[in-house]
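Problem 12. The chain below contains 348 residues. Write out its predicted structure in token notation.
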Amino acid sequence: MKIAIAAPVEERVPPIKYGGTELVVYNLIERLVAMGHEVTLLANGESKTSAKLIPVFKRSLRSMSEYHDTQIKEVYKFMSVGKVISHLHRENFDIIHNHIGWRMILFEGGLDFPMVTTLHGPMDIPYQQVTFNEYKNSRYISISLAQRSPMPDLNYVSNVYNGIDVSKFKFFPNPQDYFVFLARMSPTKGPVQAIQIAKKAGVKLIMAAKVDATDEEYFKKEVEPLIDNEQIKFIGEVDHAEKVELLGNAKALIAPIQWEEPFGLFFIEAMICGTPVISMRRGSVPEIILDKKTGFICDSLDEAVEKIKDVGLINRRFCREHVKKNFSSEIMAQNYVAVYEKILKKNK
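Solution.
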């Protein structure tokens, strides 16, 4: 099968540090190539892939000096779509898999072959909903059933959970004496709540997180004053090797999300290391975490505090097996190929 995959240009594929969508795209492409498919990746030129790479821009948006200007960044994102469309007109593919999102959907009608869009973000953003309502008959893939809730009437052709390369994550049977927070320093991810939980429970918390330009003021005002670098330690962004060690050696991942998380790659990255997850009953959490088996799904911060003392009851080996059975990149790729084949069969 000849497959074109369009990726966001903000980060490298795979990301050097933080970057969920870009990592999912990378994991998918590597499996598709291994399965014998002819894959072309349209992404920024810094990307590393086994597929044929078409550089949309030479560098990632994040490495450009204009990165912190949101309006200029928006222009670059639309420019990237134009460059992707331009290339697609010069070459024939069986299918195009869109990971860029709503901007790409606007130009779908001009393509000579079918396109399917994986929705990586929340579906409750009003200006994006305008696009999805206008193009509700396009082909969409959700990454959790919970993600569909704000817009249940779109043409969902499948639900495919994100997957990781489990071979790149070690198993840690004996954790050290700390808990971990791994995410963006965004109000939606609950860093303040994670600190509150750790302080009330009297445990050490190590926080590894990206601070986006849009979150700098929030971090400075709300989060940074709570960090004492003794009980609560902030170490910034981490690369893959550092992330594995940090997650695996933790007693649990504290993830008190404050939004309807569409998936949460960090949940499965923790569990594949054997580390249970303490999170809230929101979004995709009940689809990913098995309550009392691979972590604890809580209805309040007080409940999360209570569950801190119970993390030793969780079987860390079972956490790893749960991810291997349900959230591997092999399973994800197989499920996507099944979607491609279904679309192509209908398109004949």
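Discussion. The mean pLDDT is 94. Students who got a different answer should revisit the alignment rule from Section 12.3.
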